[in-house]
Amino acid sequence: MGKANKVLVIGGTGYLGKRLVQASLNSGHDTYVMHRPEIGVDIEKIQLLLSFKMQGAHLVSASFDDYQSLVDAVSLADVVICAISGVHIRSHQILLQLKLVQGCMQRFVPSEFGTDPARMEEAMEPGRITFDDKMVVRRAIEEAGIPFTYVAANCFAGYFLGGLCQPGFILPSRERVTLLGEGNQKGIYVDEDDIAAYTLKAIDDPRTLNKTIYVKPPKNVLSQREVVQIWEKYIGKELQKTVLSEQEFLAVMKEQNYAEQVGLTHYYHVCYEGCLASFEVDDDQEATKLYPEVRYTTVEEYLKRYV
Ligand code: NDP
Question: Which residues form the NmrA-like domain (predicted)?
Answer without folding.
Answer: 5-303
